[in-house]
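pinning this so it doesn't scroll away 📌
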Amino acid sequence: MSTISRSQRLALPVALIAALLLLVPAAFAAKGGGGGKPSGGGSTSGITGPTMVYDANSSGTPNWGDEIAFTTSTSWTLYPSIEVTCSQNGTAVYRQSVGYYPTYIGSPYFTLSGYWWTGGAASCTAALY
């Protein structure tokens, strides 16, 4: 009976995933609407973007390592926020929420990288809630 080390078992799948990520461009699908907001009342809302704040590789499109922002238009009076979620091969590797209201004290930008997203293309969505 031969034994295969853990690194040998992981080498081929990791190499395949890395190769696939190089071929798949990042995609953003912005979702407006009332995620978590009750319907009715005649409110309107939407998000525009993303717009590039910092383009790490000068590609002109959002990629890993870039910094992006959105513009909101909403009649909501309580703390509109945007959440960006990015996945690689169906696994969430990035999630960040930013408040788009005057008293929000954090940065209004999304930096597309993180502990679980260390490189490569990802499929990303933005939702206003």
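📌 and the second one:
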Amino acid sequence: MCRKYAHDPNDIADAKQEVVLRYLRHRNRIELNVFGWLAATARSVCADIGRHRAREWRRRAEWSLRESRGDRDQASIIREQIASVMRSLDDDDRALIERRFFERLTIEAIASWLGVSPATASRRVGSAVERLGALLDVIDERVFVPPADAVLRGRARDSEREEETALSTQTVRVGVMVSELAMKTPTDEGWHIGIEGQVRSVPMLERDGIELVGMVEPDTTSIGGVERVIRDFGLGAHIVDATDARALYRELDVIYLGTLIAMVPRVLDAVVRAVELGVGLLNEHFAGSIIPGMRDQRVLRLMLAERAAEHHTEGEHGKPRPAEVVRGHEIIPGLSVGTRFVVGGCGPVCAMAKGSTVLIERADRPAPTHQAELLPNGGIMPILATGVIGGGRAVVLNQFLPELIGKHPSYRGDFYVNVCRWLARAEHEGSRWMLRTPARS
């Protein structure tokens, strides 16, 4: 299996070791078929190595070509800037990067040098690369930055065409939140949303070019409902701690929040921080709206709203109501302003945050039926909205039948692929949108 993705013997050895390390790290929480887990993990690790090597060879070739064309002044500038960035690192980070990427030491050799386990050494190298990547982000985006052996986020693109070509071929890693807390949380009317309801849209994310990763609250992977969803939806090859903002930032391109009516503060804090750093956010169905509730500023921020209340259609939940496109966007190609939909009638009524853009909204502008005091002056019901949270893009989709958007006769392409690719680009300090490439150890 490894040879399908990684051909170098050293890469194959590294892949085998990484699979063993992941198994040892997670073995007490694996209640699935062990051989199936190992196979899925090996496939993920080897694919990452193959993609990493392909990017490295391509970028080194680009750099060699630029130098062969006589672009020596540009090369000198870059070398000076990188030397300056390296001097800005603390001694520990600089030593790790020099040994790993200049002296070409293996993780085992670095672990021996540090006197720690290979897994700890790998994490420390990854953290050092992350800090180096953050410093490199401040380099003038018009300067081409040659790569080290590591994958660094924030690669500058010379043109929009080059950016789109790279994005169309890159695998977007999407973290799917699977919450044990939300499964057990009743609403004020006594009902609750089961854990399968949280991930209802995941089958629509199972597309070429999208890799799904499980996001869970700590120590919950062995709980029946969580374990079953991870197994049934193929999320067990790699699990990320949903309370660890750094892990979310390093491992994911996009965070997917499904019908999570309850979110613990640590998860909310980590998600907000990761998105601020540049991870994309796909928020379906106003996550956290019951616990901690719509008064919580973190919940509102993830909704791209300043204030929000809730509306339920009279008689039964989700009665069909009209909605229409009010603004065009690249995630809804082919849908012109005025295009009509029929949507489920329940959802949030919002005063949208500054800078957010509503693309589709309910046509009849309903009044709140729950928490009406939170929105005394009315608002709109956004069905699809986009915005920015810090350095990351966000899409909010308040629609229990989101597939209806992509199934509209005028829609071009695959809705979720378009959304995830758009979200995988993070905002740089300059005016250009940058393609994020998480540094994974």
